[in-house]
């Protein structure tokens, strides 16, 4: 791509962790460089700390090397991006705060660009089964599967006959945890089956520790499904309107929020209606407008070269 040149492009946009050499070459040629930060850079450090506390749930893992020892020959990803990026596109306040507070990115060098909801989710007809709680996505520590499992244990210990369903890949070490005995693991499902799970769910619960802006929460809103999640999920869910925001790692708070929505059907119905209305604010057209404004500040006059 570098050899092919940049043509008439004035801006270069890459995804987080990709095209470092491309960004460097673009900057040398006077192009404005941008990176879409689709996950908080601190995610690796956050997850590794959790893995140290839950070693029997999940082995240590490396995403992009932010926690590896510093080496002059192999600089960390964020060090490379800070040296090659003019503007960071952030899907959530959580990501923006991480960049500013933990990596020294100036706030004026960030732009908030939440993602979009695929309109296919608006066609899902809700058929909620009261007390059917859905966890959607990879069942790992980053997404808070251990907190979800503990919340399930708490509620079932109080005599709540709720079903806690996990739709997503899950390792054997996760599945065999005694604390996860209350969970029903469905494995990774095809799109049609996921639509059915969204339709049947009473609440989506996603107590993530670190995300960019979790797509599954947008999908749930589009399906008119109330969401219980965390600030770290980077969700566009509004607390008390489309769902509830609870502290990460707080199984008691998660259990209370789930129970409150399930037990109060009027609140649940209000949140369901509000969820779909909220989702419509994140159409492809609105995403396009936000992206163009974030990149150019106005309608573009030159092409954008995209490195991937």
Low-confidence segments, given as residue ranges, are: 299-308
Report the major sheet. Answer: 6 strands, parallel
CATH superfamily of the largest domain: Glycogen Phosphorylase B
| CATH fold assignment of the largest domain | Rossmann fold
Count helical runs: 11
**Number of DSSP-assigned strands:** 11
Mean pLDDT: 94
Helix and strand succession?
Answer: EHEHHEHEEHEHEHEHEEHHHE
Structural class, by secondary structure, is: alpha/beta
Proportion in helices? 25-40%
The CATH class of the largest domain, by name, is Alpha Beta
**Rough shape?**
globular
Q: Please, how many domains?
A: 2
Q: What's the architecture of the largest domain in CATH terms?
A: 3-Layer(aba) Sandwich
Strand order of the largest sheet: 7-6-5-8-9-10
Describe the protein's architecture and organization.
The protein is of the alpha/beta class and 308 residues long. It folds into two domains: 11-116 and 284-307, no CATH class; 120-281, Glycogen Phosphorylase B (Rossmann fold). It is 37% helix and 15% strand. It is built from eleven helices and eleven strands. It has helices at residues 20-28, 43-53, 77-84, 93-103, 145-157, 172-175, 191-200, 215-222, 251-263, 265-279, 284-296; strands at 11-15, 32-36, 87-90, 110-112, 132-136, 163-167, 183-187, 203-206, 227-229, 243-245, 304-307. Strands 7-6-5-8-9-10 form a six-stranded parallel sheet, with helices on both faces. Strands 4-3-2-1-11 form a five-stranded parallel sheet. Helix 4 (93-103) links the parallel strand 3 and strand 4 (110-112). Helix 1 (20-28) runs parallel beside helix 3 (77-84), helix 5 packs across helix 9 (251-263) and helix 8 packs across helix 10. The radius of gyration is 21 Å and the shape is globular. Residues 299-308 have low confidence and may be disordered.
């Amino acid at each position: 791509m570098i050899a092919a040149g940049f043509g008439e492009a004035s801006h270069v946009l890459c995804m987080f962790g990709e095209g470092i050499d491309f960004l460097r070459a673009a900057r040398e040629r006077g192009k404005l460089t941008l990176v879409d930060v689709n996950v908080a850079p601190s995610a690796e450090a956050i997850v590794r700390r959790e893995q140290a506390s839950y070693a029997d749930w999940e082995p240590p893992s490396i995403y992009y090397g932010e926690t590896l020892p510093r080496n002059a020959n192999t600089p960390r990803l964020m060090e490379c991006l800070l040296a090659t990026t003019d503007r960071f596109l952030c899907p959530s306040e959580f990501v923006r705060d991480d960049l500013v507070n933990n990596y020294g990115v100036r706030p004026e060098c960030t732009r908030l660009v939440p993602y979009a909801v695929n309109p296919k989710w608006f066609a899902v007809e809700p058929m909620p089964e009261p007390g059917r709680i859905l966890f959607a996505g990879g069942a790992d520590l980053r997404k808070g599967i251990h907190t979800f499992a503990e919340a399930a244990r708490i509620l079932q210990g109080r005599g709540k006959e709720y079903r806690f369903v996990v739709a997503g890949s899950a390792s054997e070490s996760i599945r065999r945890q005694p604390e996860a005995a209350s969970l029903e693991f469905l494995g990774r499902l095809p799109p049609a089956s996921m639509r059915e799970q969204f339709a049947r769910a009473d609440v989506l619960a996603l107590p993530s520790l670190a995300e960019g802006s979790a797509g599954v929460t947008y999908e749930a809103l589009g399906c008119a499904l109330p969401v219980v999640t965390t600030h770290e999920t980077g969700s566009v869910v509004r607390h008390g309107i489309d769902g509830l925001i609870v502290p990460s790692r707080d199984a008691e708070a998660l259990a209370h929020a789930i129970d409150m929505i399930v037990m109060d059907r009027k609140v649940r119905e209000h949140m369901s209606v509000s969820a779909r209305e909220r989702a419509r604010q994140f159409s492809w057209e609105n995403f396009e407008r936000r992206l163009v404004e974030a990149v150019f500040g106005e309608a573009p006059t030159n092409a954008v070269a995209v490195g991937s």
